[in-house]
Specification:
Blueprint lengths: L1 H4 L2 H24 L13 H26 L1 H14 L7 H7 L4 H4 L1 H11 L18 H30 L9 H6 L2 H25 L2 H7 L4 H14 L1 H18 L7 H19 L4
Helix pairs in contact: 3-7, 3-14, 7-11, 7-14, 8-10, 10-12, 11-12, 12-13, 13-14
């Protein structure tokens, strides 16, 4: 029995050592193995349309596999609405719905992997979307997801302050919510203040994530290089990248109607298209 259980102090030391090894390994993976910075290319508005077309083609070819993965998106959207409507979070309804897109790049990781496999001519099944979970890049992808989630939380806090400054601290009733927002000067002040501030958050996420997650799926570059590469793509192609952000926002709005059911098609098309945009913006190894 003693030999099986071991001394408690010894067990604790071994557990701490194992945990330290895992932390060290995760930290090492953050830096990746590749040391040469990826080459960034110029893209045009035609590249955006081509990426969307290729994304739709991937969706049609893989739809039986993809639909099993993305049916959760409308469920999340409906859940957010129900939470907001039935609690004092009603003023956060629009920030929640729009801010959900801030973590979209990480949520589409599986779609990037499916597009990568199809592009390489490899067999593709829905379970292949889980492959990144076992890759060395999973640690930096999760770290990036944490960063995007932190930005989402900050956006929610700012949205709450905007509501209090313009419409007051008292939560609205369900019946009077739209009337208060669209039928008062304070409500329009909140809209005119909230939209540009929200756009700043969206632009920050776009610059950080336009190619970073697909790059992490494709190569073992590490998180710092992935973020820098995404920023370089944005700096090299400010017009097309901003246009891409507008396309993504517009399609997400369309996909949210009715009852977020359109996201079943919009989310996978955008996920696959983001992979093809990455391929056009970053030169192969």
């Amino acid at each position: 029995m003693v030999k099986t259980i071991g001394n408690p102090l010894t067990w604790t030391a071994e557990a701490a050592s194992a945990a330290g090894s895992h932390v060290a390994e995760a930290t090492r993976r953050m830096g990746g193995r590749e040391t040469e910075a990826p080459q960034v290319r110029q893209i045009t508005f035609d590249d955006l349309l081509a990426a969307l077309a290729a994304g739709f083609e991937d969706f049609m070819a893989l739809r039986s596999d993809v639909l099993a993965l993305v049916v959760i998106y409308p469920l999340i959207g409906v859940a957010l609405v129900l939470i907001a409507v039935n609690t004092e979070l009603l003023p956060y309804l629009f920030p929640m719905a729009s801010g959900f897109a801030l973590i979209g790049p990480v949520a589409a990781t599986g779609l990037y992997e499916l597009s990568r496999r199809r592009e390489a001519g490899e067999p593709t099944r829905w379970s292949d979307a889980l492959t990144p979970l076992r890759s060395p890049s999973m640690a930096p992808i999760l770290a990036l997801g944490g960063l995007l989630m932190a930005i989402f939380v900050i956006w929610m806090l700012v949205a709450g302050m905007i509501w209090q400054v313009t419409l007051g601290a008292q939560p609205p009733s369900e019946a009077g919510f739209l009337a208060q927002v669209l039928g008062t000067n304070a409500g329009w002040g909140m809209i005119l203040l909230g939209i540009p501030i929200g756009a700043v958050f969206a632009a920050l996420v776009l610059a950080l994530a336009v190619v970073s997650v697909p790059l992490l799926v494709d190569r073992n570059t590490g998180l710092p290089m992935a973020l820098v590469t995404s920023w370089r793509v944005t700096r090299t192609n400010p017009g097309p990248v901003l246009a891409w952000g507008a396309i993504v926002a517009g399609l997400l709005v369309i996909g949210s109607l009715p009852l977020f059911l359109g996201l079943i098609v919009v989310m996978p098309v955008l996920g696959h298209a983001s992979w093809h945009l990455y391929r056009r913006a970053v030169a192969p190894r």
